[in-house]
Amino acid sequence: MSIAPRRGPARPRPRAEPEVTSRVTITGIAAGGDGVGRADGRVLFVPRTAPGDLAEVRFSTGPAARFAHARLLRVLEAGPSRVEPECPHYRRDDCGGCQLQHLAYEAQLEAKAAIIADAFERIAKRPLPAPPDVRRSPAPWRYRRKISLHLRHEGGRVVGGLHPWHDPSAVFSLDDCRIASPAVNAACRDVVAAADALPAAPGLRATVREAEGGVTLVIEGGTAWRDPAALLGRVPSLVAVWWQPHEGRRRLVADRRPADEPGASFVQVNAAVAADLRAHAVERLLAHAPATVVDAYAGSGETALAIAARGVRVTAIELDADAARFCGARLPAGSRSISARVEAELPRSLPADAVLLNPPREGLQARVTRALDAEHGRARAIVYVSCNPATLARDVARLPHWRVASCMAFDMFPQTAHVETMCELVPEGT
User: Fold this and answer.
1) Residues 311, 387 share a domain
2) Mean pLDDT of the 259-271 span
3) Considering the domain boundaries, does residue 106 fall inside one?
4) Taking the model in full, what pTM does it have?
């Protein structure tokens, strides 16, 4: 049962700001994927535009500001890097999953290199000598092994799909995601078709992941689920199902995998690029001849295992207990896996000759950067892998006793504005 919230006294509607229509030439791509140009003394951010586009846009001229978000009315002259988007959902439904399908792939790589360089210049206050190289993805399409669907009851049927970029409250029906693998697309369609076997709720979130042994599913929402195991019969490709009920903790509710498989959270979105990045990170760490390494945010331990296989003693730190246990069971003697928060455990695991960091998008807590900065006289290197150039640059700024020795990027997420960056730091003066 759902209860409508009580309505308070009506609030006065905010007065609409005046708007103007203008022409703008797009000169670059901002973090997030919007095109950037200037008009009326403002910097304008215009979604779905490409460098070199001459665009007619509309934006608010409200309180004097140096920046404004503009709506694209039409492209008057297309820039040299503009292409026709391949995915019908991108054009027809304004899908928010991708931001750069209208850019040629080489232009996407150039834009991501510029976004990283801009973050280091503006946030870290440590300009890079040149924009970093961005290694291509072997497959710019059909690479993605994970999708999160939003399931909704509408007009007596279940709609399963994604949000338009301009309306996070809406959901369009997903037929075929062109960046997702065939196995993920097929499982998404099967889960939507079997929606009557899911928890009863007005809306659910379903995350489909393609793993080595099959497809896994995480369902979020609802308060009661009568027979989760029945879903495995309805969707043959599924090998495991987790459920996180409303106001409850996630738990495994159906499983037909081998006993030693890790949990639901540790499948790389782009397997080929992840392997390339891992090899590069291991190479840069071993270049400093460490005897001991701390692998923070270790996940299920693939990188920790690769380092330990070279005779290095590794301390792997990972909050997820299942992943930490899976990692620890495979590490050789002398190395160890610890299930803990990095900010709590890292100071106890130092000193080490080198540290590997691969945090979530929000980056490192200040406690972590303080502990690492204090190690500049003992540790030889920090290798920091980040999916967010802004938080990477912020954290590098918090390490004043370390300098950037190298910076390489990897296109883990083609057609989107996201990029994976690997930054190698060494103590100042070395």
Assistant:
1) yes
2) 71
3) no
4) 0.90
